[in-house]
Amino acid sequence: MTRVDGRVERGTPCAGWDLRRLVAHTTAQHHGFAAAARGVGGDPGYWREQERTGAPARAHRAAADAVLGAFAEPGVLEREFVLPELVGGFRGRTAIGFHFVDYVVHAWDVAATLGVRLHQADEVLTAALAVARRVPTDPAGRGPDFAFAPALKVAEGIGPLEATLRLLGRQPRAWLGTSRGSGPYPR
User: Which of 34, 136, 142, 177 could in theory staple to 150 by disulfide, Cβ–Cβ 3.0 to 4.6 A?
Assistant: First the structure.
């Protein structure tokens, strides 16, 4: 990880994951969603995190390029994406929304881990919040063995990134003013 070597063992807001594991997860998700866009998302091999000893940033970039290419293909919004983690098939438009909100949140995870500010356009944050509001909050489907931690209370007047993070189980204020981070989200 070119600029973050030596920091890959830092804990992240993803419970139990260090930065290296988070990058491995996001790389695998890019490959998985690219496969789903191309009709082969049911193959678990595309979703498997790879143990990489080389350059995780380079592998992540290649995976990001692959998913962006797959999402840009004609007709992708209407295709069925098979998403094994969510047990089923979803229309492309919906599946891409899942991937989108995941990456807004994981971008914050990385920024919080590295102690840097995250800058995302208002349109991105507003769209992410709209997707996060549609994620089911049933406690039976949230927690350690699921995609999201239990939703946290969203106070009036907070910004769209903090609201998104809280809806998906992150505790952004726990990462403020500590050695872990210094407020990587706008107020």
Answer: 142
Examine residue 84 and state whether it is found in any structural domain, yes or no.
yes
Whether 112 is in a domain gets the answer yes
Instruction: Mark out the alpha helices in the chain (DSSP H runs).
Output: 19-37, 56-71, 92-114, 122-132, 160-167
Cα–Cα distance for residue pair 39/161, rounded to 1 Å: 32
pLDDT grade for 166, boundaries at 50, 70 and 90: very high
Count the domains in the chain: 1
Which residues span the domain enclosing 130?
A: 19-175
| Domain-located, residue 8 | no
Report the chain's terminal Cα–Cα distance, integer Å.
29
Q: How far apart are CA 83 and CA 89, in angstroms?
A: 6
DSSP state of 89: E
Give domain status of residue 13, yes or no. Answer: no
Residue 16 has pLDDT above 80, yes or no: yes
pTM: 0.84
Q: Measuring CA to CA, which residue among 109, 161, 100, 155 is closest to residue 131? A: 100
For residue 90, the SS3 value is: strand
